[in-house]
Amino acid sequence: MSEQGVTAPKGFVAAGLAAGIKASGNKDMALVVNEGPEFTATGVFTRNRIVASPVKLSRKALASGELKAVVYNAGNANACNGAQGDADAATVVTHAAEKLGMDFGDVAACSTGIIGEPLPVAKLLAGVDGLVENLGDNGHEAAESIMTTDTVSKEAIVKGEGWSIGAMGKGVGMMAPSLATMLVCLTTDASVTAEVAHEALEKACAVTFNTLDIDGSTSTNDTVILMANGASGITPSVEDFEAAVLSACASIADQLQADAEGVTKRVRITVSGTTTDEQALNAARTLGRDNLFKCAMFGSDPNWGRVLAAVGMADADMDPDNISVYFNDHAVCLKSGGTPDAREVDLSGADIDVKVDLGTGGPGTAFVRTTDLSYAYVEINSAYST
Amino acid sequence: MSEQGVTAPKGFVAAGLAAGIKASGNKDMALVVNEGPEFTATGVFTRNRIVASPVKLSRKALASGELKAVVYNAGNANACNGAQGDADAATVVTHAAEKLGMDFGDVAACSTGIIGEPLPVAKLLAGVDGLVENLGDNGHEAAESIMTTDTVSKEAIVKGEGWSIGAMGKGVGMMAPSLATMLVCLTTDASVTAEVAHEALEKACAVTFNTLDIDGSTSTNDTVILMANGASGITPSVEDFEAAVLSACASIADQLQADAEGVTKRVRITVSGTTTDEQALNAARTLGRDNLFKCAMFGSDPNWGRVLAAVGMADADMDPDNISVYFNDHAVCLKSGGTPDAREVDLSGADIDVKVDLGTGGPGTAFVRTTDLSYAYVEINSAYST
């Protein structure tokens, strides 16, 4: 894109560079700085109980509802490194805060890369020096610098009336496991309270990033941070702000799914006809994680029996004799039995839409996105750390 | 094996033949008959809520605690065929009961094969005729006739003092999805009550078949049936009987895991250090189903970070800073951090032992068996129904 993502809103500067963390020599560190006047911030973190050191640090930093900068590195997750990992993350953030003239608690950190390797602290400290020197309208460079196995950088800009939201993101579960961390940074020059920011981010994540369920694996490092500085002087309505945050998150989520290495099919699953939305989500996730179903999608095989076998194990109310399944809006199973032309549906395209009605007549619905299970997925994920 | 499995105990006869259900022309129907004098029987069925027609029928037949015969077919699961499927299963069983001079409720049915294809009833009825004519000491032929993608038949014999248990089994999750059904038949000439039989079978299944967790998928047709006829005139102690049932189930479970198509590694996972056994099982299953972990096993890659990332998502008490991981008894992660020689452990063999201690000091432990995720798994499972 011609416009810069996270530096599109007023009052945000960024930088990206190669600090030597990646063996490839590619860019691997980024810095995003909020120049104010306000420093409102909120974050959403991984649900995994094994969390990386930068996640612990950033949670604490965001507890105040304010933040001035985020330091990113790619190539090393700084996860499962024990007390040393916590100390290393703090050392990098302390150095960044000093260089930026900020307090320790003003700076968050996000890391992505291999788990369990010591952070190369000296490289990161030198990287911070270079980043601080190069701060400017470099949103695109920052987005490139947080990539791991991503093939393209991901950015988004959403414009309000006199204000805007910028965003960058990287990664997603199916691409390369321990590198699979999803990191997203959202910036806005709107003036909003921490409560409004947090509510908007939670709502947007719930229907965008949280519906991306590629392999059931959840990174130790997943982090989405939103910073708002009010530099536009405008306080949008809560509705407008929430819509813009949602739009930015949706764009990044689409880009993440579209850049899935090892994936040949993008699968959208909608479940309805159960008692609650939560039950529908259970069923949709169970189906989206079922390897037999995912292999069938890879083979463009309308094997709807696997859909029933998968949802039958889900924690959701259902009428086992009244389940319907549609592939690309073609009915392949009605009242839990196959339709005469079920095998004739064409699943050869890259996008497959799957709708499942669990048959109780209840109002619960849910939507998740997943992918197929391909040879390339196995190839990419079978020889990573060594 | 030279000895016949299900016909090894006194008073059981069996037959197997090709009825034309499989396109290959291989044997695809079997019949196991209990000649008495007692007809004690019990069963354990799939936990899936989408159940095949023969499962519904067999559950009803076993409600009385007695059974005289089981009709098996391979190549068609008779699942998700609606009311027609139920009627077709009943038609086959009605015919078998007539030919055998039994009542309808004396005969159970087990099917394995593709889901959602109408049962070729005429072929099965003719098959029943042939089976009844050929009943005899044909346990091995029966075991061959229930195979789908199994490469070898599975049988077991356990001898008590003057009594014995015979067994046959087929299938397992990783082999070929909709064909993945696990069917097991156990016969014994011991004289036991339905309660003793059921308790013994439940206990044995819990630590054998239920610890086989290959891809998290559960068939619509899984059935384990135990028939006891007292023909030996001996009533073993409950302890001896339970030990023998466990031994027979363990043997079949080992054979199922060993015959896993598309699998290059057999992985044994033990989880300890959490509050309850159930929590430990949650963690072991979560790890055993994690595709990133399974791909690492395929690549002989000691990427222990994936173990922590996986168990961190499990519903189990843990100390996130005190988790230990051992590959083949080599410590690769202690106190949630990597050991200096973690990458040096040799995982090139076909068997990999993984031990995870969740670090709470609690007494909960669990064990599951799984496999790697290989190219062949994807190949076998991506083009099945068409």
From TrEMBL, chains A, B:
GO biological process terms held by the UniProt record: L-arginine biosynthetic process; ornithine biosynthetic process
List of residues binding substrate: 148, 170, 181, 261, 381, 386
GO molecular function terms attached to this record: L-glutamate N-acetyltransferase activity; L-glutamate N-acetyltransferase activity, acting on acetyl-L-ornithine as donor
Biological pathway: Amino-acid biosynthesis; L-arginine biosynthesis; N(2)-acetyl-L-ornithine from L-glutamate: step 1/4; Amino-acid biosynthesis; L-arginine biosynthesis; L-ornithine and N-acetyl-L-glutamate from L-glutamate and N(2)-acetyl-L-ornithine (cyclic): step 1/1
Enzyme class: transferase
Pfam families attached to this UniProt entry: ArgJ (PF01960)
Subcellular location: Cytoplasm
One Gene Ontology CC term in the entry: cytoplasm
Annotated PANTHER family: ARGININE BIOSYNTHESIS BIFUNCTIONAL PROTEIN ARGJ, ARGININE BIOSYNTHESIS BIFUNCTIONAL PROTEIN ARGJ, MITOCHONDRIAL
UniProt record similarity statement: Belongs to the ArgJ family.
NCBIfam families in alphabetical order: ArgJ, PRK05388.1
Protein name from the UniProt record: Arginine biosynthesis bifunctional protein ArgJ
Native source species: Corynebacterium vitaeruminis DSM 20294
